[in-house]
């Protein structure tokens, strides 16, 4: 697969990942954190704010292609 096509597909997938992830994370927060203290909100959003990086790293590594020899 050409690198330009791989990067285009990866970019679209990262945008979709971020949008879906934000929607799901906020839906879970609204459903579960209603009566939580401020530090509960802080910990939840800190954790979920960093968690999306893991699948994005996999996509970015795929976009870069196989390692050059």
UniProtKB/TrEMBL annotation:
Keywords, sorted A to Z: Membrane, Transmembrane, Transmembrane helix
One Pfam short name: DUF2842
TM stretches of this protein: 12-32, 38-60
Protein's name in the database: DUF2842 domain-containing protein
């Amino acid at each position: 697969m050409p690198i330009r096509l791989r990067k285009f597909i990866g970019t679209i997938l990262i945008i979709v990942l971020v949008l879906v992830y934000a929607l799901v994370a906020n839906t879970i927060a609204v459903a579960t954190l209603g009566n939580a203290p401020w530090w509960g909100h802080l910990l939840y959003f800190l954790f979920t704010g960093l968690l999306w990086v893991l699948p994005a790293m996999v996509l970015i590594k795929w976009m870069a292609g196989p390692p050059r020899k």
